[in-house]
Amino acid sequence: MNESHIARIAEELQTPAKQVRATAQLLGEGATVPFIARYRKEATGSLDEVVITGIRDRLVQLEELDKRREAILKSLEERGQLTDELKEKISVAVTMTGLEDIYLPYRPKRRTRATIAREKGLEPLAQCLFAQDDRDPATEAAGFVNAEKGIETVEDALAGARDIIAEWVSEDQAARAKMRDLYAAGGAFRSKMVAGKETEGIKYKDYFDWEEPVAKAPSHRILAMRRGEAEGFLILRVVVPEEEAFAALEALFIKGSGPASEQVRMAVQDSYKRLLSLSMETETRLAAKERADEEAIRVFVENLRQLLLAPPLGQKNLLALDPGFRTGCKLVCLDRQGKLLHNDTVYPHLSERAVSEAAAKVKELCSRFSVEAVAVGNGTAGRETEAFVRALDLPKTINIVMVNESGASIYSASDAAREEFPDHDVTVRGAVSIGRRLMDPLAELVKIDPKSIGVGQYQHDVDQGGLKRSLDDVVISCVNRVGVEVNTASKQLLTYVSGLGPQLAGNIVAYRNEHGPFGSREELRKVPRLGPKAFEQAAGFLRIRGGENPLDASAVHPESYPVVDAMAKDSGCSVPDLMRSGELRKDIDLAKYVTDRVGIPTLNDIVAELSKPGRDPREQFEAFGFAEGIGKIEDVKPGMRLPGIVTNITAFGVFVDIGVHQDGLVHISALADRFVKNPADVVKVHQKVMVTVLSVDLERKRIPLSMKDKQEQKG
After folding, report:
1. Contact indicator for 663, 647 with CB cutoff of 8 Å
2. What DSSP string runs through 467-492?
3. Torsional sign, CA 426, 427, 431, 432
4. What is the CATH number of domain 113-303?
C-alpha cells in the first residue's frame, strides 16, 4: 500500500487517513463497494458508497500516474538523459499534466523546424539571443552563415535561432501553465456553420454563429457543438485574445528592449501562433470534453438510479399488452413470480368484430388467470390500447397501468431473452418484459443495456469506458441496496450482486434448477466455485424467504448470526420472537455485544433490520393515469393543465410523458418559481407531476411545458 497515495487522498477528500487506509486495504483484498459500505462500518468509520467509490477511483488514477512516471524514468535512463535534478522533478510531480510538461522537452519527436536548425549548428546563436545582452544579433549571426548547411544569409541564421527559441518557449513548464490558465479562464468556444450545410445541419442552427466562454459552457452545449463538428456541420475552435497571450508570454521571457530582446519577442509570438496556441486549444477542448462527460455521466447515473429504484407493483398475477395497430397487440399472462403462463394476440383497433373478440378474450383471460393488474406498453397505440382496456369494465381491483417500454425491444432480441424464451418470438418476449417491468423495474431493467433505457444525455458522445464504469456502479449499488431473492432471481440480476458476477450467477441458477430452491444461505456454499470470499461478499445481499433461518430473509450478514443468537438468548426468547417484538429489542443493551470486529454502527444496523427484515427501500407503488381524451399531440392545446411522468432529466430541463407518444420539455427556467441550478434538485425520474402546456409545435413535434405555479404563469 502506497502511504503517499493514502495521505494525498485523505487530504483531497477531507477524510482521516486511517479510514482511507482501511478502505484501500479492503478494496485490495477484493471487497466490493456495497459490502464495505454495509458490513465494514467499523473499519471505515461508516464511510458511504460515494466516498468509498471516490477512494477506489482515486487509487486507480494515482496508480496510473505512477506507472507513467516509471515509464518516463525508464525512457530517459535508456537514452542517457536522466539527471538527479530531472529525476527529482519527475518524482514529485502530482498530476499527469505536470508530469507530461516535465517530460515534453525530452520526449522523442519528429523532425521540427527547431530540430533542423539545431542540425545546422544554430543552437549557440539561439542561446546568445536568449541571453538578451548587449551583443548585436546580426553581428553574432554573421558567424553562422554557411551556404553548405543551407544558411545563405544572416536572416536565415536568425530565423533558425528563433525556431529553436520558439520550441523552448512552447516546452517551458511555466509558459504552458500560464497559457493553460489563460485558456481555462479566458478561452471561448467559437462555432461557425460549414458553408453550404445550412439545410442539412438545421438541427445545429443555434450554433451556426455562436460564441461562449469555455468556463461557463454547460455540458450539453459542449457535447452538441462537438457532435455538430463530428458530423461535418460546424467548425469549432477555442480562442483567446492574442494580445493577452503575447503579453503573458513576453512577461516570462523578455528581459529588455534591445535588438536581442526583439528577436526573442518575435520567437515568442511565433511560438504562440505556431505551437502553443494549437497545443493549448487541444488541451482545453479535451479538458472541457472531460468536464462535459463527467456532468453528462452524472446526470445519466442519477436518472438511472431513480429509474432502477422506481416503486415496484410487487408480485401480482399480470396480463401485459405490447400495443400495435395493424399487427395487433401481443398479450401475455404472467404468474406472481413473472413466469409466462399464456400468450396470444388481440386486435382491438381493427373492425368492430375484432374489437369484440379482443374484449371477450381479455375478460376471459383475466378471469382464468386471476389477473390482479394489466400492464400496457406506452409505445405506438399505447393510449388507444389503454382506453380499450379501461372500457372493458374489468373489476375495480384490477389496476390498469401504462408502462414505459423503452428498451423492451432491445431485451426481446438479446441473448438473455433467447436463453429464457427459446420457443417464443421477440413479440412475446417484449410483452413479458413490459409486464415484469411493472412488477419489479429493477429486476427487469438490469437485463437491458442502460444506454437503451432512454434516460441519458448525449450518452453515445461521452467517454464510453467511464460511462460503463459509472453505470455498472449504479446498477450494482441499486441491486445490493434492494437485495435479491436468490430463489427467483434471474442470472442477470444475480450477476450484479456483490462478489458474484456472470459465472457464479450462472452457477447459482444451474444449482437451483438441479436441486430446487435454496433452503438456507449456508447452502450457497455448495454452489460450484462459490468460495468463502464470494460467500462473504454476497451472502448479506441475498434473501431466502421462508427458509430454515428467519435471518436469511434479512440483510443481517451470516457472520453476525451469533450476535443475534446471543441477543435472543440474553432476552430469554427465540430469534423470531426478537424479530416480532419491539419491546424485546428496545431492552437490548448494545454495548454488551461490542467486540473487536463488531461495533455500535453494525449493532444498530442489526437491530434496525430485525424490526423490518428484508424491507424494500423503494417507495410504495401508486397508480397513475394520463388525462382522458388526450392521446395524440394534436389533442394538446396551450394552457392545458395535464398530469405526466418524468422520463428523463438533463442539464437544461426535464422531459415529461403526458401520454401523447411525444415527451414535452420543461425547460430549467420553467421548473419552479425559484431559480433552479440543477433540475434533479426539483424532480426525480418516474415522478408524477402536473404541467401546463405553454405551446405546441406540430411541425417539429415539440411541446414546451411549465411546472411553475399556475398564477405565476398567468402573470
Report:
1. yes
2. HHHHHHHHHHHHHHHH-EETTT--HH
3. negative
4. 1.10.3500.10
Please enumerate in sequence order all residues whose Cβ is within 8 A of that of 243, keeping only pairs 6 or more positions apart, or say none.
none
507: pLDDT strictly greater than 50: yes
What single-letter amino acid sits at 638? P
* pLDDT, tens digit, 9 for 90 and up, residues 455-490: 777 788 888 899 899 999 999 999 999 999 999 999
Helix or strand holding residue 334 (H, E): strand 329-334
**Every domain of the chain and the residues it spans:** 3-106, 113-303, 318-439, 633-714
Q: What is the pTM of this model?
A: 0.87
Residue 5 near residue 16 (C-beta atoms within 8 A): no
Distance between CA atoms of 343 and 376, rounded to whole angstroms?
15
Cβ contact 244:182 at 8 Å: yes
Q: What's the half-sphere exposure (Cβ side, CA atoms, 13 Å) at 469?
A: 13
Which H/E stretch holds residue 645?
strand 641-649
Mean pLDDT of 10-37: 96
Distance between CA atoms of residues 304 and 311, nearest Å: 14
- State the fold for domain 318-439: Nucleotidyltransferase; domain 5 (3.30.420)
Contact 689, 656 (CB under 8 A): yes
Helix, strand, coil fractions of the chain, as percent rounded to 5: 55, 10, 35
- The alpha-carbon radius of gyration of the chain (Å, integer) is 33
The 10 Å Cβ neighbour count of residue 326 is 8
Query: Kind of pairing, strands 318-322 and 329-334?
Result: antiparallel
SS3 424: coil
> Grid coordinates in use for 436?
415484469
DSSP state of 626: P
Give one word for 56, left, alpha or beta, with left for phi > 0 and alpha for psi -120 to 50: alpha
What does the longest C-alpha to C-alpha distance in the chain come to? Answer: 106
Locate 131 and state its grid cell.
Answer: 541571453
- The 329-334 sheet, strands edge to edge: 340-346, 329-334, 318-322, 373-377, 399-403
Can you read off the three cell numbers belonging to residue 84?
Answer: 538527479
CA distance 561 to 569: 12
The CA distance from 542 to 521, in Å, is 8
